[in-house]
Amino acid sequence: MYYLIFGILYLISLLPFFILYILSDVLYVLVWKFLRYRKNVTYNNLKLSFPEKSDEEINLIMNKYYRNLCDSVVETIKLMSASQRSLDKRMTCNWEVFDSMTLQNRNGQGFMSHQFNWEMGTVLCNWHSPRRFTGLYMPLNNRYFERLFLYIRGRSGTKLIRVQDMQKELSETQNQQVLWGFIADQNPSDPKRVSWNDFFHRKTAFFKGPEFVARRYNNLVYFGEFVKLKRGYYEIKMKLAFDNPRETKEGEITEAYVRFLEASIKRQPENWVWSHRRWKHSYPTTSSS
Question: For residue 195, what are the β-bridge partners?
């Protein structure tokens, strides 16, 4: 079954971008108009996050969001066969920010988010980073699609580690030349071991792991923002956020990332994944942040 899925999608990936975007338009009509994929979840997330916006404004963001979501689907399929040269034309980044790792002979870690198209960034980063890009990922329920995503994300040489295996592989990987990649806005599976931060008017659970790694090993910490310039074209804006994490207070790095992420989403709200259940965990009143 896996090879059948792989073969079909690989053939689709060989199509030129302009045809893929026609397929995206068809997918948009199906997802938005007929299937109404997680429309209530998306609406509620946006309405609670932007209470100052009218229903008309919320619906406009939703419309753009679902177009971006469908574009990301066909773009991710294209990653199966797209060349580095082709992707470099479509996604730019100030890659030189990572030179600080080489100059200081230190490892680093990037705090990224579910902004489109993060999958393209995952593939490109290992081609441009002076350290091997090592990403942590949450396993998918469908083993065929998990295997497919591992192929796509790893085709440039990116190393991938399951979140569940992080502690087991942490020390060995850290002893190598590495740039950790964290999609740090994921919803943690265990709400008892999280950092609770104010995020769009609600206490929201964030992983403690990225900050723990940074403070333990004193890795250089970078924050990254994905900006959609126009259809099919993106820019990653990276910045060195902390150059000496060991001198920070507990929770300081996570709080800074949350503020960075929120400001980034406000600039381009249609470019963040609103259809996932980001706030399914409730803040326990007896817990401390």
Answer: 206
